[in-house]
Specification:
The protein is built from three helices and seven strands, in the order βαβαββββαβ. The longest helix is centred in the C-terminal third of the chain and has 16 residues. With 147 residues, the chain is of the alpha/beta class. A seven-stranded parallel β-sheet has the order 3-4-2-5-6-1-7, sandwiched between helices. The termini are far apart.
């Protein structure tokens, strides 16, 4: 398998929902392209928040999604949200990385979006993940985002 395309999205906004909204936008585009998406978050409460937001973030929009492993039918949804390092089975086209953890499963995805907030701790964690990819022969692209 070839190396994934990795994009770092550096958020300049201190708006607490900017990262969530960007994740929703990326998931919308990926779904429109028939990609299977895994949104990796840090905690169960983050997964629940994203689950609610994917229902309401845009009027007249529906993104079929589920919290991974929350029920026996989660694998039927093209967008899954979870805290696990390993993606759910069949959900390996696109990773939206919101958790800040190193992605040891990078080679399992075709595309990865690393979302980095404006805080110093998030920036430092983002730098570490950027170095991780480079050390593994992947040259990430970087995008400044203002929402």
């Amino acid at each position: 398998m070839q190396s994934p395309r990795v994009d770092f999205y550096l958020l300049e906004s201190s708006n607490g929902r900017a990262k969530d909204m960007l994740a929703c936008r990326l998931a919308t585009k990926a779904f429109a392209s028939d990609m299977k998406v895994y949104i990796r978050v840090s905690e169960t409460s983050d997964a629940q928040r994203m689950d609610e937001l994917l229902w309401t973030f845009k009027q007249n929009s529906f993104l079929p999604h589920a919290i991974a492993h929350a029920d026996n039918n989660a694998d039927q949804y093209p967008i899954q949200i979870g805290t696990d390092t390993e993606p759910p089975a069949g959900c390996d086209d696109f990773l939206i990385q919101m958790s800040g953890h190193n992605n040891s499963a990078a080679s399992q995805f075709n595309r990865i979006a690393e979302l980095v907030g404006p805080g110093d701790a998030e920036k430092q964690a983002g730098r570490e993940r950027f170095r991780y990819y480079r050390q593994h022969g992947i040259e990430p692209d970087t995008h400044q985002v203002t929402l």
